[in-house]
Amino acid sequence: MCALKVKRLAFLTIVLTYFLIVFGGYVASSESGMGCGPEWPLCNGLVIPILEGDTLIEFAHRVIGAALGIMTAMLYFSIQKSNPVRELDKVSKVLMVLLIIQILLGAAVVWMDLPAVVVSVHLIVAMLFLAALIWIWRNADEQRSLAVFGKDNSLQNKFNGLLIVTLLTLFLGAYIKHESFGLSCGWLECANGFMPVSIPAMVQTGHRILAGVVAFYIFILTYLSFKNKWEAGLQNRLMAASLLVLIQIIIGILTIISYIEISWAVIHLAFGTVLFAIVFEAGVFVSRLSRVITPGKITRNQKYFG
Fold it and tell me: Where are the bilayer-spanning segments (predicted)?
């Protein structure tokens, strides 16, 4: 029963985290990040400021963040109360550390007047926080640590590599947004050519190259999942990721064509976050399938991925 409670609470926290990430994108796109002035935790010198314009948007973001902090603490104590397995206990502690780091980064972003690098790191920590929540959600029903007598890590390593490239792509995307490099290139070319000639254009091109690597990586894994007859659940996840990649390409083009209209910029972040979440959850799914329950028996990894 405790495991079910943890699982439900983890899922609700995932939903709120996703909403906060996307709303944070709206705060950035609407240039409301300094709506409370260079102050934290106060807002324009007040606990509850006059709620209008940019102040309303930024203060709402802070309130949602505070609610997320409370839910995360509830999740952590629920895990501790349920006598968690060692891995779950570890990840719950990592989750709390990420929460503290995120709070400090949020304060630094305001105090330092929205520096692009710090804001971008703020987003990446949010993604890692989301990943930790997904791991807890998918593993909360484990009643004990499973002994691992051997496993094939090759596919898991592929997903780990994909996650790293995805995080780098998100980091560059956030950096481009906050440095206002988004229109350094057209949707197809830069400065009437395909080779970037300025630093902003190079950064923008780097983001596109990384996005292309992510797309190619996902398409290849999806192809291999059907060719090698991997488990149906993994095939479905990779198909969903492939579809999201195609949608992201279209949204990216529309974002540039619309001169980075707020709605398209926020949608681009929203779909990018979902893509990251699906890829990470697929990696967790692979990890669970790879476990060996009994020595001498065929591994799930061999059964589904061999």
Answer: 9-28, 59-79, 91-111, 117-138, 159-176, 209-226, 238-260, 266-287
First and final C-alpha spacing in the chain = 36
Nearest to 131 by CA among 21, 220, 8, 246: 21
> How many Cα atoms are found within 13 Å in the side-chain-facing hemisphere of 217?
19
Rg (CA), the chain: 21
Give the Cα separation of 18 and 16 in Å (integer). Answer: 5
- Is the CB of residue 136 less than 8 Å from the CB of residue 6? yes
Look up the pTM and report it. Answer: 0.89
Angle at alpha carbon of residue 256, lines to 214 and 105, rounded to 5°: 65
Q: How far is CA 260 from CA 95, 169, 213, 252, in A?
A: 33, 18, 23, 9
Under 8 Å CB-to-CB from 109, ≥6 apart: which residues? Answer: 33, 115, 118, 119, 122
Residue 265 · residue 255 · CB < 8 Å: yes
What's the chain's length in residues?
306
Q: From 17, 14, 49, 13, select the one nearest 34 (Cα to Cα).
A: 49
Q: Is the separation of the CB atoms in 90 and 99 below 8 Å?
A: no
Q: Which residues pair with 46 in a beta bridge?
A: 43
* pLDDT tens by residue, 109-157: 999 988 999 999 999 999 999 999 999 999 887 654 443 334 557 888 8
Please state, in angstroms and rounded to a whole number, the distance separating the CA atoms of residues 245 and 172: 17
d(CA 277, CA 221) in angstroms, rounded, equals 16
Distance CA 199, CA 136 (A): 40
Side-chain-side CA neighbours of 205 within 13 Å: the count stands at 14
Amino acid at 243: L
Which residue, 60, 127, 61, 58, is CA-closest to 98?
A: 127
